[in-house]
Design brief:
Blueprint (H helix, E strand, L loop, with lengths): L5 E2 L2 H13 L4 E6 L5 H13 L2 E6 L19 H11 L7 E3 L3 H4 L26 H4 L3 H16 L3 E5 L3 H13 L5 E5 L19 H6 L2 H16 L4 H13 L6 E8 L16 E10 L7 E10 L13
Parallel strand pairs: 1-4, 2-3, 2-5, 3-4, 5-6
Antiparallel strand pairs: 7-8, 8-9
InterPro entries: Cyt_trans-like (IPR004821), Pantoate_ligase (IPR003721), Pantoate_ligase_C (IPR042176), Rossmann-like_a/b/a_fold (IPR014729)
Pathway: Cofactor biosynthesis; (R)-pantothenate biosynthesis; (R)-pantothenate from (R)-pantoate and beta-alanine: step 1/1
Keywords: ATP-binding, Ligase, Nucleotide-binding, Pantothenate biosynthesis
């Protein structure tokens, strides 16, 4: 049985946070939607190393799901999450897990109908409307809203996010900068399986065979990166065709939602990569849950293409 305290109300968490303030303790924060895996553990590990106290939130945020998406079936297992945290960090336990209800996070109520919603919501314009924002137009509105709420409650010095959701990191950095939040956003590199597939809670939906086939996403991106860094190919159309061949050539049942090369700061779409700036390569692909299945899962991934003159660059900055 995990000894990590689980807090479910805003008032209780604020009381705990006030204790940390009174003792001049720094607080790191890892916001998650639960069903934790090694990728989340990398974020927690970084927070534990940087801060006196670490708080992890587990909240499946309804406002970042569209009505036809997988909110009801999104994997949830709080006991699993608590056990994984306790087993991964036996010497320094997490100080608290914040697992609020929807009523706590949305006191004005919540409905999927944006025209009928009441209360405060947060939009981050520009960087939210491309890539994932084109396919999921209300997604980043939900992300920005829930993170603003969580930041207001937890009041962390640092918050930790994974590079796998790279557009989210750009949106969050813009949110923090433009709303003048006194908060550092720390981006931790993507954690991958041995085959290169990015770890994700949604991987649980996939059969072992499909998990193996889905490594073509990483292979395609890596081939394109090598073409850029070694052969100096900057034409986006040529690089995109290479990725498409790698993904669809061996997996005819996979469906590409998008492949995009974007400016590392504004996320503007590129036709050609500026070798002095580099870019972010992002993609989203629908894969079968299992061969013979009609159900599909949408996987996202990305890769940083560094400036050729500064190949050590690994993460975007704002």
């Amino acid at each position: 049985m995990s000894k990590i305290p689980v807090i479910t109300t805003v008032d209780e968490l604020r009381a705990l946070r006030n204790d940390y303030t009174a003792n001049n303790q720094t607080v790191g924060f890892v916001p998650t939607m639960g069903f934790l895996h090694e990728g989340h553990m990398a974020l927690v590990k970084q927070s534990l190393a940087n801060n006196d106290r670490t708080i992890v939130s587990i909240f499946v945020n309804p406002s970042q799901f569209a009505p036809n998406e997988d909110l009801d079936t999104y994997p949830r297992d709080l006991n699993h999450d608590l056990e994984l945290l306790a087993e991964t960090f036996p010497e320094r336990t997490i100080d608290a897990v914040f697992a609020p209800t929807v009523d706590q996070m949305y006191p004005s109520g919540f409905t999927f109908d944006t025209n009928a919603q009441r209360g405060a919501f947060v939009d981050v314009l520009g960087v939210s409307s491309v890539l994932e924002g084109r396919t999921r137009p209300t997604f980043f509105r939900g992300v920005a809203t829930v993170l603003t709420k969580l930041f207001n409650v937890v009041r962390p010095m640092r918050a930790y996010f994974g590079q796998k959701d790279i557009q989210q990191t750009v949106v969050v950095k813009t949110l923090v900068r433009d709303l003048l939040m006194d908060l550092e956003i720390v981006v931790v590199p993507t954690i991958r399986s041995q085959t290169g597939l990015a770890l994700s809670s949604r991987n649980k939906y996939l059969s072992n065979e499909i998990l193996d086939h889905a490594t073509c996403l990483y292979r395609g991106m890596e081939i394109a990166r090598q073409m850029y860094t070694k052969e100096k190919i900057t034409n986006v159309s040529q690089l995109t065709d290479t990725i498409v061949r790698e993904i669809i050539g061996t997996n005819a049942d996979f469906t590409i939602d998008y492949i995009a090369f974007s400016d590392p700061t504004t996320l503007a779409y590129l036709n050609s990569i500026d070798p002095d700036k580099g870019c972010i390569l992002s993609l989203a692909v629908y894969v079968l849950n299992a061969h013979g299945s009609t159900e599909k899962t949408r996987l996202i991934d990305n890769m940083i293409f560094p400036p050729i003159s500064s190949p050590s660059l690994t993460l975007p900055t704002l």
